[in-house]
Every structure is written in C-alpha cells, then in structure tokens.
Write a structure and sequence with these properties.
Blueprint: H1 3-11, E1 17-26, E2 38-39, E3 41-54, E4 59-64, E5 72-75, H2 89-100, E6 108-114, H3 124-139, H4 146-161, H5 168-175, E7 180-185, E8 191-195, E9 203-213, H6 217-235, H7 248-253, H8 258-282, H9 290-304, H10 309-320, E10 325-329, E11 334-342, H11 346-360, E12 366-369, E13 377-378
Helix pairs in contact: 2-3, 2-4, 3-4, 3-5, 4-5, 6-8, 8-9, 10-11
The structure holds adenosine-5'-diphosphate and magnesium ion.
Residues 64, 66-67, 87, 90, 114, 118-125, 128 line the site of adenosine-5'-diphosphate.
C-alpha cells in the first residue's frame, strides 16, 4: 500500500500532497563538516515518502508505516525539546523549529514510509526531517529555499531530538540533483552541483552496508570533535579548515600531542582529497578518484581511528578484487562503505565481499548501487 492509501485509511480523507526526500552517502570529506571544511555527498534512490495535509487546530498527528504502533498525536503548542525519544521526534522537531522561527505551522496530519535503511549511516533521519520540512514549506507557503530547509532540519535534530549532527546530511537530502554529487562548503554553506554520471562512464558506486554498529561510536564522535577543536586552538586558527594543506607538515610539527596530530592530519588531508576529487571530476577523469577514496579510508582507519574490522574487510576485499577504490563513509564504527568499480566488475566485487564476510563469520552485508539521485521534491 502506498502512503496515499495509507493516509486515507488512517485519517479518513485524501492527503493534500505527497513529498519525497532521499537518504545520502558521502563520497569524500569525513569529519570535515564541523571543522568548517568540505564534504561531497550524493543522494540515494532510497527515499522517505510522506503524505501530508494541513490542520488549523494545532493538532499534529504522525504515523510511520514502518513502525509498529498507533498514530502519535501531539499539539504544536506543547512540543518540548528532548522529551520525545521515539521516531516521532524527527518530524515533530521540524514543526517545533519552524514555529520557533515564527513560521505559522498550525498542525498537520502526516503518514510516511521510507526505503532508506535505518542506522546504516545513510541518513534515514535526515530524510525524515527534510520530507517533513518540504511538505510543510509547500503547504503553509513558507517560501524557504533548499538550504534553509536543510538548516531547519539540522536544528530539529540538534536541538529537539538532541543529536549533534553537522549540516551535510540534511543539505544532501534537500539539495542534491540527479546525476550529480554535491560539493558543500560547510563554512558559508555554499553548494555546487558536480556532474557525477557513473552509468555513462561504465562505472558503478556500490554501497556496502556492513550491518554492524559498534557501541564505541557513541562517545567517539564527541572525542574526535573535541580533539579537532583542541588542534585548531593550538594552531591558533578558528577551525582546522584554516590550516592550508601546503603547511600541513609544519603545522603538525607545532603540535605536541600525537593524538591531536593524527586528527589534524586526517581533517586537513581529507579536505585536500575533496579538492582533488573535484578537480578530477571537473576534468572528466572519474576513474582517477578511486585511489583517493582508498587513501581516505586509510586516513580514517589509521589517523582518525573510526573504522572497524568489518569496514576494513570491505575495503581490503573490494580493492583486492579489482575495485578502483573504496572507503568507509559516515560516522564510522560500522555503517556503510562506498566502493567504486567498473560496472562490469560489480558482481565479482560484490561476491568477493560477501564471501569474505561469510568466511569471517560476519552477518551478510547489504550491497546496492548508489545511483546519484534527486533531492527532496513533491511527487504528487
Ligand atoms: P541514520 O540517520 O544513519 O539512518 P539515525 O540513528 O540518525 O540513523 O536515525 C535512525 C532513526 O530515524 C530511527 O531509529 C528512527 O527513529 C528514525 N527513522 C528512520 N526511518 C524511519 C521510518 N521509516 N519510520 C520511522 N522512523 C524512522
Ligand atoms: Mg541520522
């Protein structure tokens, strides 16, 4: 049953419209966003789809076809940050931030469903927020741009749900275009669409969901973030973005702590890798980005130390089986990896990774192609 039919069954009337917002995968630029650096995500074909109608009585009704349980009924005047720990906090948070900013959102009925895998580092949460924000923007005629919807969605996750994420996920979901990757400058939030048409090049970018999420990741994000801030402080710059790649060696020499040195080296070199990838894509040399992805993985594994045996196995096996390059993507300690392959090698590489996982006794990974897809849009 589609979300339109689901909406009608739940609420007894037709929705005013249906909107979709995708999950994303980050091609290159990891842990660079909070250092005001660069990232380069692309939208996945997987989307959160929401059927939505306005209400004028302040009632907010939320339902997910993917979650067991009844309709969650809230009131827009009674939304309190960090009190709702269920999935409903994501769409409710969007209503809350819009109202905090003075936008007249007077209630809504929402029924949604999503094909974005949850907890795989593919931003199912951002898809939920952005689809809600776009639907409310259209229905209440708020006139907000894609980047503005992304900012509100991020604030919903930071301030209402209570998750300290950067701006990448929501911007990717709101602003990506089909056949493109998105170059995002996390300082001024400017964006540039970079043509990334894999199919016409005979290439495929595989997402390998490792199906693990190690608990270690919970405190590690805050620790890395603190370490990066400390590095910037010791180098006398506002953010690590301000350390030039050309000055990396001399900058590292000024840091006493080995741990901080590693974090700084990762961030400054990954910002540089984003530049390299952009230059190669602009020059039409898509295959040449493969080794840069693999270097990025080594940096995440050895310097930032946020990989895990499962992700290392994906990368080593894929590259060993002929992939052009591979890296873990997202927050680390599990989640997904991206693998760039000749389209004709996709099956061989997939099989090699599946066999390596089986031999190691790991849960079978989920592998699918990351076709660069459209950002959030109205679909009905
Ligand atoms: P990620 O964004 O990497 O997938 P998160 O932990 O940030 O992982 O977000 C996952 C959470 O988002 C889920 O635990 C759930 O609360 C919410 N969510 C995602 N997809 C859905 C869905 N289809 N229905 C309801 N809630 C969802
Ligand atoms: Mg998330």
């Amino acid at each position: 049953m589609g979300v339109r039919e689901g909406f009608e069954e739940l609420y007894g009337t037709a929705p005013e419209g249906v909107w979709a917002a995708p999950g994303r995968v980050n091609l290159i630029g990891e842990y660079t966003d909070f250092n005001e650096g660069f990232v380069m995500p692309l939208a996945l074909p997987h989307t959160a789809v929401a059927a939505v109608s306005r209400r004028s009585d302040g009632v907010l009704r939320l339902h997910s076809a993917d979650i067991e349980g009844p309709v969650v009924e809230l009131h827009v005047d009674e939304l309190v940050p960090r009190t709702n720990t269920s999935w409903a906090a994501y769409p409710a948070g969007v209503v809350w931030v819009l109202r905090e900013a003075g936008h007249e959102v007077t209630g809504a009925d929402i029924h949604l469903s999503s094909t974005v895998p949850t907890g795989a580092g593919l931003s199912s949460s951002a898809a939920l927020e952005v689809v809600t924000a776009l639907a409310l923007n259209d229905l209440f005629e708020l006139g907000l741009s894609g980047p503005e919807l992304a900012r509100f969605s991020q604030r919903a996750e930071n301030d209402f749900v209570g998750v300290p994420c950067g701006i990448m996920d929501q911007t990717a979901s709101a602003c990506c275009e089909e056949g493109h990757a998105l170059h995002l400058d996390c300082r001024d939030l400017s964006i540039r669409q970079i043509p990334f048409d894999l199919a016409s090049e005979g290439l495929s970018l595989l997402v390998v969901d490792s199906r693990v999420k190690h608990a270690l990741g919970d405190g590690a994000y805050a620790e890395r973030r603190e370490g990066c801030e400390e590095g910037a402080r010791q180098l006398g710059v506002p953010f690590l973005r301000d350390v030039a790649y050309e000055d990396l060696s001399s900058s590292l020499a000024r840091l006493s702590d080995e741990r901080i040195q590693r974090y700084v080296r990762h961030v400054v070199s990954d910002d540089h890798r984003v530049d390299q990838v952009i230059n190669l894509l602009d020059a039409g040399d898509v295959r040449a980005i493969g080794p840069i992805l693999t270097e990025g993985h080594a940096s995440l594994r050895d310097d930032l130390r946020i990989s895990c045996p499962e992700l290392d196995l994906v990368v080593d096996t894929a590259v060993g089986a002929g992939a052009l390059g591979a890296r873990m993507t997202g927050g680390g300690f599990g989640g997904s990896a991206v693998v760039l392959v000749e389209a004709s090698d996709a099956d061989t590489v997939t099989k090699a990774v599946e066999e390596a996982f089986a031999a190691a006794g790991y849960t079978a990974p989920r592998v699918f192609p990351a076709v660069p897809s459209a950002g959030a849009r109205r679909v009905e």
